[in-house]
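Data deposition worksheet. Section B asks for the primary sequence of the deposited chain exactly as it was used as input, without tags or linkers unless they were present during the calculation. Section C holds the resulting structure in token form. Section D is free text for depositor observations; keep each observation to a single sentence. Incomplete worksheets are returned to the depositor.
Section A, Depositor: J.P.
Section B:
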Amino acid sequence: MSDNKLRILVVTQYFWPENMRINDLVRDFTEKGHEVTVLTGLPNYPEGNIFDAYRSNPNDFKRYFNATVIRVPLIPRGKRSISLALNYLSFFISASLVGSIKLRNKKFDIIFVYAVSPIMAAIPAIIIGRLKKAPVFVWVLDLWPETLRAVGVLHNPTHLAAVGRMVSWIYNNTDYLLLQSHGFLENVRKYCTKEISSDRLVYFPSWAEDDFSSVALTASTLIDRDDSVFTVVFAGNLGEAQDFPAVIDAAQTLAKQVAVRWVIVGDGRMSAWLAEQVEARGLGNVLLLGRHPLEAMPGLFACADALLVSLKTNDVFEKTIPGKVQAYLASGRPLLGMINGEAARVIDESGAGLICASGDAEGLARITLQLANTTQERRTEMGDSGREYYLKNYSKPTLLARLENLFRDATVRKAAK
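Section C:
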């Protein structure tokens, strides 16, 4: 190995061909000449079934750019809570056992965990990190067990306490914790029984994928630009946390007041409910386009007059900044936020759009009408302000260069011990 090349193991339950930000990170580090291996599961997010393309020819998914992809078996997410729980459990058990065996002859300088839910994905990384004597970085993108309580997966205090003890073990056995939001700091420290120095507890936000960071947006293959209506676009996971009942109520409120079309792109547990409600309420102004590849999103955003982010309110979600916020800011379009906490602060601070309280359907209708009646010049100013804020705070090249420096510093410290 050359002095400059790092041997990096990325542990993530979700990876290409699933649309995830970790794909960007892996590609960037391979393009810089690092040797990257990805330990992941079988692609099944968000529909809950193993992708047909993968079933047909799994050999096509063993390499991603120059990264080696090691996949371990898991139980697909399905559509029920029990299958989701089994999905979480199966990955961390399989990655810990099967993953350790498949990686037995490999050496690593750094182990990096993409820690969206479930946090248990960090357990195989910690195990392998001890076996390989490599420092472990966990990018904390979700707060457990609070998120489980917030979305209604767990209610029993005994069970939540048990998950809390697991989270404490993970945090205390991780070398570096990267936090996607300033709001995470207090919560993470609560579970750290060992003292973690400030250089090992690092604020590290998300970025937008490359396609969104370019101002040269292509035409959309999904919808046509229509200046006779005000187009609001939502793109992402269609889950309970996104509070679609309030979104649909707002759409119904505005249906006879102003020419607004709501374009919803994505898939998830609320997809069937949304389709039923749109038909039952006769909402011809709501278009459900289903799931589409990431590459189609920049062109779609170019056809939007506003981009919608919504999230239910609770003490966990208020500390979180949904990843779509960065993509929205990078695209240079105004934002509509039915959201509280850190994300609302970012939208307000950037001057990128209008916000109302989480769950406030009337408020969403009001700010949508307000933005629809705003001049095009002012909406352009909002979009430009959002993009400038993105480039200053969430630029991918800057963040990944910073991460590379963190990796190098960690290897130096490890060698000095």
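Section D:
The first strand starts at residue 7 and ends at 11.
The mean pLDDT is 91.
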